[in-house]
């Protein structure tokens, strides 16, 4: 399986965004994970369109936007216009999931659906053959630096079984508390995209940290 490491910008040093992006790229990160929080879907507020617009010229790897917002439909076109690679919305957000997926795909982007730790994987099934990636939250969305929730592993195993049995080409991303130890567990369970913030940006040796998630 080809594994992808997606560096979550939320954990970088915001006083030097440009050089932090370079650091992640040079360390071998495959994608940049951009967490948008609106203070409604989750309590926290992170960053949004103006910040991404400003940093995009300095980014040389695909950008994957994770929308933790109450109404994703309000934002999809704007991120698509900027030229991001993919957009992931939450199954639990208040928009029509199918409508949002159709919109993302009509803009030629990779479409993802994320589920919180307590949302069963069956909720994805009506949409799973129409998306490119599932984003399984391995912490409650809203904050970086939380501990990995081991109880989510079963859901990843079920998803991998379903995807393989039905011959779907859907990636399974995991997000939250991913480090060298938990990456081992989610890999065994069937995940193939590892979103990681604190572990990557907080590492003494960032290159080693990125490599340790893949190997
Ligand atoms: C949390 C975000 C994550 C977060 C992960 O709601 O979706 O992408 O940045 O951070 P770490 O890797 O620190 O758990
Ligand atoms: Zn995220």
Explained architecture:
- With 215 residues, the protein is an alpha/beta fold.
- 33% of the residues lie in helices and 20% in strands.
- Strands 1-2-3-4-5-6-7-8 form an 8-stranded parallel β-barrel, surrounded by 5 helices.
- Bound molecules: D-xylitol-5-phosphate and zinc ion (ZN).
- Residues 8, 10-11, 33, 35, 66, 139, 141-146, 175-178, 195-199 line the site of D-xylitol-5-phosphate.
In total, how many beta strands?
8
Q: What is Rg?
A: 16 Å
Q: Would you list the SSEs in sequence order as H and E?
A: EHEHEHEHEEHEHEHH
Tell me the number of helical segments per DSSP (H or I, 4 or more residues long). 8
Bin the helical content.
25-40%
- The largest beta-sheet arranges its strands as 1-2-3-4-5-6-7-8
Note poorly predicted spans: none
Q: What's the story with the biggest beta sheet? A: 8 strands, parallel, barrel
Helical/strand content category: alpha/beta
- What small molecules are bound in this structure? D-xylitol-5-phosphate, zinc ion
Quick check: average pLDDT?
A: 97
Distance between the termini: 11 Å
Strand residue percentage: 15-25%
Give the overall shape. globular
């Amino acid at each position: 399986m080809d594994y992808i490491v997606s560096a979550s910008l939320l954990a970088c040093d915001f006083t030097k965004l440009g050089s932090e992006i370079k650091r992640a790229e040079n360390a071998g990160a495959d994608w940049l994970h951009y967490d948008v929080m609106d203070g409604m879907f989750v309590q926290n507020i992170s960053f949004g369109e103006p910040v991404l617009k400003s940093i995009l010229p300095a980014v040389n790897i695909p950008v994957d936007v994770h929308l933790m917002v109450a109404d994703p439909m309000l934002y999809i076109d704007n991120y698509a216009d900027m030229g991001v690679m993919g957009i992931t919305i939450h199954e639990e957000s208040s928009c029509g999931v199918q409508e949002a997926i159709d919109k993302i795909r009509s803009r030629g982007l990779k479409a993802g659906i994320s589920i919180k730790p307590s949302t069963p994987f069956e909720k994805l099934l009506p949409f799973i053959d129409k998306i490119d990636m599932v984003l399984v939250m391995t912490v409650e969305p809203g904050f970086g630096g939380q501990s990995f929730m081991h109880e989510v592993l079963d859901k990843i195993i079920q998803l991998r079984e379903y995807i393989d049995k039905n011959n779907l080409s859907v990636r399974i991303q995991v997000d939250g508390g991913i480090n060298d130890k938990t990456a081992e567990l989610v890999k065994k369970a069937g995940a193939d995209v590892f979103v990681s913030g604190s572990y990557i940006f907080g590492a003494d040796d960032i290159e080693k940290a990125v490599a340790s998630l893949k190997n």
